[in-house]
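Same chain as my last thread, 372 residues:
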Amino acid sequence: MSSSPLTIVQVLPALNGGGVERGTVEVSRELVQRGHRSIVVSGGGKLAKEIEDHGGVHVTMSIGEKSPLTFRHVVNLRNLVLRDRVDVLHARSRVPAWVAWLCWKSLPKTNRPHFVTTAHGLYSVNRYSEIMTSGERVIAISETVRSYLHQNYPRLAADRVCVIPRGVDPQDFPRGYQPSAEWLERWFQQFPDLLGRPVITLVGRLTRCKGHHDLIEIVDRLRKTIPEIRAVVVGGVDPKRQQYAAEIQAQIERRGLADHIVLAGHRSDVREIYAVSSVVLALTSDPPEAFGRTTVESLSMGIPVVGYEHGGTAEILKNLFPNGLVPAGHVDAAAKAIETILAHGAPVPENTLYLKERMLAQTLAVYEEIAA
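reply #2:
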């Protein structure tokens, strides 16, 4: 730990949920527990109260909107940085990163905090996205993201980038977890056809890149050799993509798979759904996953994952469960891998790499090292 407490400001668009938001809350809590001061600047949301509850400070500022008016907050952020004598300013998204960078550049060098960015995704390659490479330290959430940044932004010095993979808390996704009897009763009342059958699960909102069409192809192949196979899709419908959701439903009907594929919609009980799944699928196409949260969550619980060999999914499977890797887009290979797992089983090694505790320790080490 650094010799004196640090004041860290994290900036992001909002705190309504999702991996970036949850990671921000976790880092804030860890900072407070270690005796540092944590300030989070965002447009607000349901997770903002958690920041305050664990001793952090939340400042509501609409710095995530894609509008020229957003840049009025450069002055507001500048005043906050000077007033609170901030040691590290950490940007986690592109528009807030522009606001933070302009604030940072406007300060005299003697009064500037250190500037850190985290690249959470495989962003489109342009000047707008390049802001995520402007930190004195650039955190990449996977080796996949680091390679992507170096390939597309060759001016980014290698020694400014560090890889800190996202991690799960084993208490949230415990190995061998068994849902309660009450949950199981409700689940099988809602989806009685899943009881006693092998179930493959795809978690991902209904958008084209998540692989729903490939799932349909895989189930169509599997039902010829495993007639009792069932698939569950967990993910809500984006209001802007209603047509895609209708397209998926129509294809399921056209293939005669309505009895084989359940569209469960958005669910908050994904841990329990993993636990009653035989295999979880990771079929994201283009762009591939920057990390692969559902892959890590499932494997942490000991549930096999079959996923495409690209992006963050491949990175995780190579390290934890290489038996689940199949060439990207090859639905036949995916179906065969699932058949093999269902027929012979596939022990999943314990996850010792992608842990929340490790992610938090590495993130705080960046803050302390750069502020030293």
